[in-house]
Predict the 3D structure of the following.
Amino acid sequence: MGHKAASATIIGAHNGLIRWPLMETRQPAAAPYLSAACLHRLAPHLVPMVRRGIVGQSRYAKTLMAAIQAAAADGQARPVLISGEPGLEKDNIAALVHFGSPARHKLMVRLNCALLRPDGSDLFGTGSGSGGGGSGGEAVNLLDCLAGGALLLDQIDRADPALRPALVELARTGNWSAIGGAAGEAVGGAISGAAGEAAKPRHFEGRVFFTSERSVAELDAICQQIRVPPLRVRRQDLGEWVRYGVRLRSRSLGWSRPPVVSEALIKRLQTYDFPGNVRELMQLVDRALRQCASGHPAELPEDVFWIQRRSQRARFDLWRWKPQLRGWMRSPRFWNFLLFGLVSWVFVLVNVWLWLGPQDRQHNGALNFFWAWWWPLILLGYPLVGRLWCSFCPFMVWGEIGQRLARALGLPSERWPRGETDRWAAPLLAGGFAAILLWEAVGDLENSAWQSSALLLLITAGAVISSLRFEKRFWCRYLCPVGGMNGLFAKLAISELRAQAGTCSGSCSSYACFKGGPAEGEGLATAGCPLGTHPAHLTDNRNCVLCLTCVQACPHRSVSLRLRPPAADLQRDMQPPAGEAGLLLVLAGGLCLHSWQKLLGGLPLAPPSLTAGPLLGRLAFGALALALPAAVMLLARAVAGPSRQRALNLGLYALLPLLWAALLAQHLVLGMAEAGLVLPVSLSPWWPETAARLPAWSADPHVIGFCQTLVLLVGVGGSVLLLRRLLRQAWRPWLVVSLVPLALGLGSRWLVGVG
Ligand code: SF4
Ligand code: SF4
Ligand code: SF4
């Protein structure tokens, strides 16, 4: 034997990878006593070595390891049946048993039962004329050549029923009948089923291994069984598996050091079931590393790992229905005109108007538009089109202009920090939003045109500075307060933009949607997704600003715009980013702040107004009102205890429709009372007489109150249904928990209601 001798024992866990000694060895050279004809016959089927040991340290990994050890040490070398779902490398488990057994110096061959002829000639025939590897020289039989080696019969459950009895008999007694001559002359290889002139009894001295995806009743009694657990029950091992795969793939890419894989990424992958098991995981790792735009990243970005987390049912593809809509929406000429030719200059005009025009809402049309139109409209838009505002947002248009200028001047930009960015950015975003709300209340921004403009310019400054410092749109992804709110409520939308994971993994090698690149096929040259998101990886609408860059870049028409059921992003298995719940509580705090007098006006030291008087007292009471929902949540967390934290978090997300409804109800007051006055208000400073003749409309307070009630009813209904989906409770506890949104709905009506 020319192969390196190796110990038969299995050594213990090593860095989470339970290693098999022989996995590092090369294929043992064929035994010298084999004739050239035998070598030729066996060569196509040889199993050279084990591919890998058992990865992981979970109890499932250890149980599997123990089962392999027991089978390897079996003195009687009984047949082994290895069963489990597809993609679990069951053939490798068989190799682990064989190469860990005393017979490890003997050869192992593998045949796929799904491909064997029903007459068994591939296995029991001499090979000449049977397609079994015969060379046309000396007629030899595979089992004779294998002598005392190991025969692995893969996918026994897919063997032809006519052949099965012969295979079972071979495993049970070792007996078989050779089939001579051309295929089809004899049927069945076992003594029991033998027929044909050449059938004569033989005995196989080696060991038989089977693999199967289903149970095989005939084999149960005669085989040692090894059941391989699917990856989804071994979630604890997933980190080891991913890091192992990244190490292997990095080596083949020639990278000296494999990229770091963050715990956040592992946690996200742990929410996925991996129906294709190890095979799917390895493909995922391979695809992820191929996508890494930078060539050799120090840490793997989360975005390159995209998985289809749940079935995408009940979707209606708008672009398949109206293909011309897609062509129009992906036109760069349209977007360039809209964003850089129109929106950018309208934004400048609005700000000039706010700074130089009258300062109150009754005489400044821009201020009227901001508070009476923009707020109600953007809130009304969330359930329909999610983050639509972000597709033509003027803040970012100026950010992009700044970035393009900087690039033209040769100023360098940094890659943005990924990985755990949300961990610090999400609380910062929520804090920023809280500061804006406080400023709004204390500074009476609704009635101060220059301060409203200052707020808009401040957000624009954030977008410009981030765009100068970092590549892409770091501001939009992590820090923009308006974007944070848009992303949160976009989860409720009935529309989504997604790529087909199947098309992407099956037909794409450029990943132009994500990485950018030159034009290819019908894909246009772009810089890739400005949020560093892969459209097939999107698990909710939060990280997509609907810029349609991916639609322009994709050469395979993989990206589609679809209608879906409301709030489809909110599912029980979702993994909201760290800190996002903070923003939700801040938005709820905004409601309390807006109607602070109803809540805190009776307290001692309460100022008569938040807009006039000593600043410290106003700030203190404003902050107190703003912090009320967060305080209630902290209290609930303390009462619920550690085991109920996730349920509490999901319950908070279930209140999102109610929060949306309460905010809309609050902004309906100004919207319905003043939006219809925008024309006379706009012209009144310059042409008061003309302005007085222009159409004006203002809703009666009772009508506003009725609409508020209606909106809040929708919100309460949405939250009650979401509670059922997210908490999946039995009917009675669900009805009890549903009292919470009902009570909050009534409270909101009292808080923000008119009439
Ligand atoms: S995230 Fe903010 S800056 Fe970016 S597009 Fe949306 S609103 Fe504009
Ligand atoms: S969306 Fe298009 S460009 Fe992106 S990976 Fe899929 S097929 Fe490739
Ligand atoms: S490129 Fe596609 S996935 Fe990325 S933000 Fe734009 S529309 Fe969304």
Q: What stands out?
A: Residues 1-30, 129-136, 182-198 have pLDDT under 50 and may be disordered. The longest strand covers residues 207-212. The longest helix spans residues 701-727.
